[in-house]
Amino acid sequence: MIATLFIAIAAGCASALMFASMISGAMISLLLFWLAPLPLMMAGLGWGPLTASIGGIAAALGLGAIFGLPYCITFVIMVALPAWWLGYLALLGRPIADPSPGGVPAPGTANLEWYPVGRILLWIAGFAVLTTMAALLTLGTDAATIAAAMKRSLMRVLDSRMVTTSADMERVVDAMVAVAPLAAVIVTMISLTINLWLATLITATSGRLRRPWPDLRATALPAMTLVASCVAIAFCFTSGLLAILAQVITTALMAAYALTGFAVLHTVTQSLNSRPFWLSCAYVVVVIFTWPVIAMVVLGIADALFGLRQRYLRTRPPPLPAS
């Protein structure tokens, strides 16, 4: 118990220091800031959700005592709560009933049905929406106030860099203000996804992971996600704060479909001899040009509608070892 408490406090201190590093203004602090959930996720996956919760509470109280209540609340929403809950879901499993009469659950972790990766992906999207909207609401309670506050901040940055503001520059700033919430939700979602993947990988490598490695190629979102996406897209054509919320939700769900699109790509390229080359090219193109991620979104939605992976696996030989 003492060792677990020490691990919890150590993880909380590491996470709090990484979160507070943004105050320094150094470039490396941005990377540390986005990796702040990693220590708590590792503690949760390796030693249980209680360890992550203790570490998160200790870190939040420390940040609140040193920097004030706003830092404490921000840390809880952006770091502690997602790290604890995602780690809890990753370890959530239920026994698979024995197919024999009586349906007695079979013992052993090999006979557990683990919480689906696709649903975890939806929770990540939910946390991305929560943190983005919470950040926007600190600027104002209506769309006009939020947009004006973001525009003033961008104009101050341009003035500090001695950039002359013209009519063209103002149009650019207006476009950046419109895109900023969408970019924030994407960055947050990618950050949480990478943190959870890294935490799972490190914990599995150390032998502390208490569940088998999930088959990421089988990642699929629940069927109702398409319905929710259509509803969110419809509300995007309204106005005010509701439209901003709908746009943020739509972006998060499309990012989730993009990730499932990559899972589809990993599945349908299994029989290619040059598979590592083509997968590497796909990732490089998406990272460099960004806009080709639309193809991954389309691929993810097409798989949800037409079952591309199931069709492929029915007509192809057994897959090669996972890579």
Describe this structure in words.
- α3 packs parallel to α5 and α6 (117-137) packs antiparallel against α10.
- Strands 1-2 form a two-stranded antiparallel sheet.
- The protein is globular.
- It has 323 residues and is mostly helical.
- The chain contains 13 helices and 2 strands, in the order αααααββαααααααα.
- It starts with a helix and ends in an 8-residue tail after the last helix.
- Helix content is 73%, strand content 2%.
Strand content is: under 5%
What number of domains? 2
Shape, principal axes of CA atoms: globular
Q: Are there runs of 5+ residues with pLDDT below 50, and where?
A: none
Largest sheet: spatial strand order: 1-2
Structural category is mainly alpha
Rg result? 22 Å
